[in-house]
Every structure is written in C-alpha cells, then in structure tokens.
Amino acid sequence: MLDEIDTVDWEAIPGHPRYYQPDSAARGLRALAEAANLVEAAEAGSQLGGGGIVHRHSAAVFPAAVTEAPLLLDIAERGHPAAQATALGLLDEALSSYPHDG
User: Fold this and answer.
1) What's the confidence (pLDDT) of residue 27?
2) Which residues 6+ apart lie within 8 Å of 53 measured at CB?
C-alpha cells in the first residue's frame, strides 16, 4: 500500500488553494498505514482531516478523496485497530462534507 500512496502525484490533484494540502494527504496516509497505536493514528488522522482529505473547519471534502477512499478502506481492513477506526471516521467525514466549487 505504501507504494500506491507514493505513486500518486498529490500535487496534481486539484483542491481549494487555501485548504487542500497535498503533502498532508501523502504524509497522513502513509502515517495512518504505518500507525501502530492510538497516538500515531490520531496524528495521521489530524493531518488528513486538516487538509489532506477534508478540511474540518470549512466542512469541505477535496477531490483527493476519490484517490484516498480505496486506500482508507484498505487501512480499515488491515490496519491497526486505532488506524481502522480513524480511516472509517475520515471516510464518514468525507461523505458528510461539501465539495468546494470547481
């Protein structure tokens, strides 16, 4: 899965210029996939929730969610229990958020 994360050109995926953070998407997914405890999963979830897949403060979901969803589902199946819960929470949040215009 780490190879799948690394092969995505996160910068090429469009997103709101003030909210979407491509580096957070890549780092957050990698960290969540490797999380071995609750703290690591929470830190990864914070990166993803703060501009990697969604922007919690604006209730926005980014186009990167299309690429991230299958990766998050894989983490939900095979990751550490804390990572599983975080992945499912992020997917729920993405489905409950609003896309920005464009």
Assistant:
1) 97
2) 25, 28, 61, 62, 64, 65, 68, 72, 90, 93, 94
* Total residues found in the chain within this entry: 102
Nearest Cα residue to 27 out of 59, 56, 58, 51: 51
CA 21 centroid distance within chain: 10
Mean pLDDT of 69-96: 97
- Report which DSSP code applies to 11: G
pTM exceeding 0.90: yes
At residue 49 the predicted structure's pLDDT band, cuts being 50, 70 and 90, is: very high
Which DSSP string do the residues of 29-58 spell out, in sequence order? HHHHHH--SHHHHHHHHHHHHBTTSEEGGG
Is residue 22 within 8 Å of 30, Cβ to Cβ?
no
Helix/strand/coil percentages in the chain, nearest 5? 65, 5, 25
